[in-house]
Amino acid sequence: MLRSTFYGFNIAFSGLMMAQKALDLTGNNISNVDTPGYTRQRLDLNSIPSANYLDRYAPYNNVAIGRGVNVTRVAQLRDPFLDARFRREAANIGELDSQLSALSDIARIFDEVQYEALNKAMEDFRTQLQVYSTQTGEVTIDTTVWSTAESMVKMFNQYSRQLTEVRDYQEFLLKDSAVPEVNKILENLALLNKNIRECDVFGNPALEMRDERNLLLDKLSTYMKIDVTYYPDPDPELAKRGIEICKVAFICDNAPPLDLDQRTLLDGKDFASLRVEQIPDDEDPDRVTYITSSGLIDSRTGLPIHTIPGNPGLQFTTGALKGALDMLNSKGAFDDPPNTLNGIGYYQSVLDQIVRDFAETMNSANAYADPAWQPFIPDPFWMRDPAEAPKVANPTPPVLFDDHPLFETNDGSTVITAANIQIAEGWKNGSYNLTTSKNMFLPGDDYIGDTSNLLYIISQLDSPFNFTTDGIDNPAGYPLFKGTFEQMFKNTGLIAAQEVSAKTKALGAGTNVIMGIEEMRNSLSSVSMDEEGVNLLRFQKSYAANARVMTTLDEALEVLINRMGIVGR
Amino acid sequence: MRITQSMVMNSYTSRLGKVFESMDHATQQVITKRNFLSAVEDPAAAARAYQLRKNFQQNNDYLNNVQDVLDTMDSIDASMMVISKMAESAHVTLTAGRNGVWSLEDRMIFANELRAMQRTAIEALNAKFDDKFLFGGSSTKTLPFELAEDTSTTPPKQVLTFRGLDITDPANQEKLKAFADEKIYIDMGFGLTVEIDSNGLPAVKDSSAFNTSIPGINFLGYGKNPEDNLILTLGLIADELEKEPLDYDATTHLWEKLTDHRQSMLKAVTRVGADYNFLQKQKSVLERNSDSLNSKILNVEFIDMEVAINNLKMADYVYRASLEIGTKILTPSFIDFMR
After folding, report:
1. Do residues B180 and B215 make contact, with C-beta atoms less than 8 angstroms apart?
2. H/E element, A15
């Protein structure tokens, strides 16, 4: 087949077009060098084969020359395997981060490294009891003891309030920040899915929208462990063209297990939404927080596509939502069955338990013997004048009265907690004092100097007890700690500190891993200014060269058209 | 591996953040002089610090208690020395005089002296320190001793009461025995143990705390016979000395009793002295403990300023170096060299 006269211009034109597109693409890459989630793009090129390759009657010595270059598509450089790895790790980090948010606040409440608080107040209480033991009967010292006790009690109240604030804040984060954010992400993903499909149908690759979708999927993966799958479009024609639908399902540990449909949060343009529920209600101190899924909702009809049986709350395997739920719901040793996951409830329960045990122990230690009881009674076997009967030790023990409590509740409830404990009114207003001696029963004899009961109270502060979830030495309770009240309290703060320390280290390790993965992703997908600079030069030269081809052709045709046939004229 | 500007930038930013964080930490260490700033930073050290602080405060409590008891014992010792010296003086005079060379007049003078001694002794026995009676046992607010004359008998006899009980009344003996055995314990760090006895009442284990109670009747004596008590014995001797002629046997008997009482007093004074010395030693031990705990607290909680400043200098150096490197690695790329 004969070559057309202007065939070369078409070849040069294709080269110019390619170079122009390549320069545009390079410019686009450079302008997005700092755009989060941007994946570098490149042109997929192929050379256009000669038109007479398939010429049936071509002579055997025919030379086929290609017809220039063709830009087939703009492609992205991205590795789905790295995305999956990144998202798995992001879920672990999300969980640790969420737990640390609560635990750090708790550890800060109990931390007395720089500022003295409850530990010091408890020590001061003990010190004042010691001072009182050398000054028994001095009302002013008794006043000092209760005022020290009052600072301690106020600290208990304050710690309890601060723990409640931590819980409230974590609930706020979950209800008003995390879950709405997840729902917003799902809604945006569904919209993107819809737009991307439409673009795909029109033959536009919608690469920037895919970047945005990947970025949102990365974000979603910090909240929960997700599986992202792409399946062929249900329309066979579109499927043939390679158009895919994006589907996201979360992984959970629900029993009985949820099937894939029930776990699906996003399928093309349809999406589910999550919501937070609290049982019995958000005012109840023992409330349990759940996250439930609406199931996939049909975006056209607004009706659920799948229903989730029972909807008992989603048991996420990892992620920020799981971390938040664990912190809100888990009471560790106080749960049934007991576990080692110490959430906010654990610290609230331990604090309440210590305070209750402390108050009960102190109140019981402050009991006094029946004033009518005499340690010495006239000898019952005395046969002569009863008035002269010698006094002998009373064989009947006295009844102990416990109506001189040191601590009581401030809300009329019968159960003392860290929130409601206060100094007993009777002690505070001087109706009675610390029972320094239980032997305050002999009319005419004072036992003011007797320190036996005061030392008993002090010894209760220094005695080790077996603390359990149901009170001291209770075999029905789960063992918590063996030690003094003070040690038990300090231990609680140190548990929080150790948890934060361990989780911070784990978070550091996880962050290193995810940074490594991110580095690999960036290595593949992010824009290199050096490369783009080189490309600028390359495609500029390419453009110039193609223009030169055109000029050369022009000159060649000049000879053909204007100079041929004028020889000898 | 392909390296891009954003990779370098991200990595640099993250590392620069860490370097700045360590510089902030080093600054805080210098400002606070602390080894660690929170329990989270070093839970094991925080646990040690908490324990040491508690031990330090407890040790100071014990030290205050020991000092308080030592001050009280100064007064106890002074009062007991007054009584002991009187008993000694009475004993010496009686030993010299009971051989019969005394005239009635001499004996009357000595008898008066003895009665004056009784009054002085009672005053000493009712001594107070820090608004507490020293010799009342566990009764510290009620006058412990009273010496009265019972004129209903012939001849009138002296009655000594302890916490309102006639110490010679047979019906009171059980109770007086209990009074004499009364203890006032103070916790001085011997491992305070308080058990509940069969009556359901707290009983301090004797070796676990220090007993500061010295009921007067413990060293003065008590019993159905007046001569069982030092003060009454002095009165009885005075009565005998006022008799004419002097009953040598009766006087000898009372002299023997006085000898016993003098011995008891000496023993009691010696015991107080021994307790005082023991407490002085205990005070030294507690003071040493206090110093040792203080230095442990310093070691665990606080940082040497040389180390802290060195750390800060190093952190500052690293931070500056990081910034310097940043200006070198972040700016240039191929594009900067294009023409």
Report:
1. yes
2. helix A7-31
Helices first, then strands: H and E counts in chain B: 8, 9
- List the Cα angle A43/A47/A53 in 5-degree steps: 155
Strand intervals (E) in B151-288: 157-162, 165-166, 185-186, 194-196, 202-204, 210-211
Distance CA B270, CA B214 (A): 13
Kindly report whether the global pTM for this prediction surpasses the value 0.95.
no
User: Do the beta carbons of residue A216 and residue A231 sit within 8 Å?
Assistant: no
Dihedrals phi, psi of B186, to nearest 5 degrees: -125, 135
CA distance A207 to A41: 8
**Helical (H) or strand (E) element with A509:** helix A485-525
In chain A, what residues touch B172 (CB-CB under 8 Å)? 391
Dihedral in degrees, nearest 10, Cα atoms A181, A185, A187, A190: -170
Cβ B237 vs Cβ B226: under 8 Å: no
Query: Would the pLDDT of B79 be above 90?
Result: yes
Interface of B with A in 33-62 (CB under 8 A): 34, 36-43, 46-47, 49-51, 53-54, 57-58, 60-62
Chain B contact present for A239, CB below 8 A: no
- Reported as a single tens digit per residue, the pLDDT across B131-169 is 889 999 888 888 999 999 888 888 888 999 998 889 999
On whether any CB of chain B is under 8 Å from the CB of A515, the answer is: yes
Residue with tokens 């891009």: B4
How are the residues of chain B apportioned to helix, strand and coil, as percentages rounded to the nearest 5? Answer: 65, 10, 25
